[in-house]
Amino acid sequence: MIELITTIGRGALDRVASFGRAAIFLLQSLLARPAPMQMLPLLVRQIYVVGVQSLIIIVVSGLFIGMVLGLQGYTILVDYGSEQAVGQMVALSLVRELAPVVTALLFAGRAGSALTAEIGLMKATEQLASLEMIGVDPLRRIVAPRFWAGFLCLPILSAVFALVGIYGGALVGVEWLGIYEGSFWANMQNAVSFYDDVINGCIKAVVFGFVVTWIAVFQGYDCVPTSEGISQATTRTVVYASLAVLGLDFVLTALMFGDL
Amino acid sequence: MTQLDDIIIDIRGLTFYRGERAIFRDVDIQVPRGRVTAIMGPSGTGKTTLLKLIGGQLRPDAGEILLDGENIPALSRRALFRIRERMGMLFQSGALFTDMNVYENVAFPLRVHTKLPEEMVRDLVLMKLQAVGLRGARDLMPSELSGGMARRVALARAIALDPDVLMYDEPFTGQDPIAMGVLVNLIKRLNEATGHTSIIVSHDIQETLSIADYIYLLADGSVIARGTPEQLSKDSSDQVQQFMEGLPDGPVPFHFPADDYQTDLLGY
User: Fold this and answer.
1) pLDDT at A94 over 90
2) What is the separation of C-alpha B80 from the centre of its chain, rounded to a whole number of angstroms?
3) pLDDT-derived band at A54, boundaries 50, 70, 90
4) ipTM above 0.85?
5) How far B8 CA lies from chain A's nearest CA (Å)?
6) pLDDT for the residue numbered B1
7) CB A115 within 8 A of CB A146
8) Most A-contacting residue of B52, B91, B100, B164 (CB-CB within 10 A), to test interface
9) CB A120 within 8 A of CB A18
10) CA-CA distance, A40 to A49, in Å (whole number)?
11) B91 in contact with A at a CB cutoff of 8 Å?
């Protein structure tokens, strides 16, 4: 019994300590702004790796999710004779929820795990220690550009996801199932408000970008520098990031749309 | 050289715990300027930890580590990074940056710490690579190098900024006899040519004895012997002799503490 309590207590203490380390780490990486001339090429490279290389999975998933939404929406709404509302349904669900959430989940799996593994392996092969001994702060050189790249890329990827998804919905609804094109787009235009829907979706994407990238780079930096440690850290990145995204999504949705 | 008059690194009362275990208890070590000092001892005595403490990557629980009068554990993060420009460290694995070729690896410290024009960087890099005999390997990636070559490239990178102190973490481990001979020679030659201070952490006795000017022998968290190679060879204490002669059993037992063998096997 006592043992159980001590185990729980130790686990809780470890979590709290780890959370504290993550906060200090975040602060140091954010404060560690390198000279812009040094930072820019590093940042551009990371935006390419983290953002551009994630485009394919985002575009393909966005297209399919939009198509499925169009199809499902049509089969339900056609019973009530209101299949013209498919456009509005597809656009609202994508812009408000699915684009930021699914993009963040895919991003955690595609780019977050790669960030964790890369930084973890750098730690295991003493590259981080050797940077420190050369007199270069790895938080500036390695962590900061990766963090900013993820933070900047996720909202853009989320926007791409929403656009492609809406196109996918139109493809199925208008081209295939024959909804009248005018009412499809007009309904969408009427229903989607820029401030309430688009901006709120963007806020979600920015928050998710911050949290997912933070978890990914921290798990890499804080991992046990062995092959087992890196694999655990990579798993933790995907699990923690996904849970954080889903949990935060509920909180943000409640704050944004709860008073409707 | 028995007189330790010109000290560059002065470690006083160093105490360091890892969890409950004391790695160092009140250790004093003085490193003479411009010489090769070896830190020796069995595996697990915290030799690498000592280098990390000197480099400021770990902070001691007590004690001072003075580099020319500056107490490293008390420095701010910024000051620490500045003072590290005076140090070079050769890691056991080489720790080359795997996304850069040999040339860029050696040029890296020059690029981040100096504003030298590109031609001068090139000249310096080629000079450092020539010193370790790998000028011809400048375009290779780290994955294409053998272990010995990787360590020599890492050495070229460590001396790129002409540091005052160069620390070697187990430079001979896992090297074939030829690569080992090359490294031994290189460390000695570089030390004589550039006049920097070298600290070697190693348990390869013959190689280290052949180049060290002064040796500290660590065991169980404290310095058990110190002196020139001749003095240590003549030391009569059992612990020193066991290590220097490489005897399997002695004050450091061959057997991990265990119950009586017969009782364990037969149960009575």
Assistant:
1) yes
2) 19
3) very high
4) no
5) 18
6) 43
7) yes
8) B91
9) no
10) 14
11) yes
Between vectors from CA B197 to CA B195 and to CA B199, what angle results, nearest 5°? 145
| CB contact at 8 A, B61 and B73 | no
CB A245 within 8 Å of CB A105: yes
Query: For residue range B189-246, what is the model confidence (pLDDT) as tens digits?
Result: 888 888 888 898 887 888 888 888 888 888 878 888 888 888 877 777 777 777 777 7
Identify the contact set of chain A against chain B, taking CB-CB distances under 8 A: 38, 125-127, 129-130, 132-137
A:B CB pairs within 8 Å: 48
Answer yes or no: are the C-beta atoms of A256 and A193 closer than 8 Å: no
Per the document, the length of chain A is 260
Residues pairing with B11 in the sheet? B29, B65
Residue A37, token pair as written in the block: 């001339």
Measure the CA–CA gap between B225 and B223, rounded to whole angstroms.
Answer: 6
Inter-axis angle of helices A99-107 and A227-257, to 10 degrees? 170
Task: Give the whole-angstrom CA distance, residue A170 versus residue B104.
Answer: 51
If contacts are CB pairs under 8 Å, which of residues 107-146 in chain B contact chain A?
108-109, 112-113
Chain A residues within an 8 Å CB radius of B55:
132-133
Q: Is residue B247's pLDDT more than 50? A: yes
Mutant choice from A27, A133, A137 vs B, greatest count of B C-beta within 10 A: A133
Kindly indicate the confidence band of residue A34, based on its pLDDT and cuts at 50, 70 and 90. low
> Cα dihedral sign for B159, B160, B165, B171?
negative
> Closest Cα of chain B to A29: distance in Å?
13
User: How far apart are the C-alpha atoms of B186 and B207, rounded to whole Å?
Assistant: 12
Q: Is B8 helix (H, G, I), strand (E, B) or coil?
A: strand
Task: Taking the CA atoms of B226, B228, B230 and B231 in sequence, report the sign of the dihedral they define.
Answer: negative
The DSSP annotation for B24-47 comes to EEEEEEEEETTSEEEEE-STTSSH
Give the span between the Cα atoms of A62 and A67, in whole angstroms.
8
Query: Does B189 contact chain A (CB < 8 Å)?
Result: no
Could A136 and B112 be called an inter-chain contact, meaning their C-beta atoms sit closer than 8 Å? yes
Position B237 scores a pLDDT of: 75
CB B239 within 8 A of CB B219: yes
Neighbour-count burial of A255, counting CB atoms closer than 10 A to its CB (0-12 exposed, 13-18 middle, 19+ buried): exposed
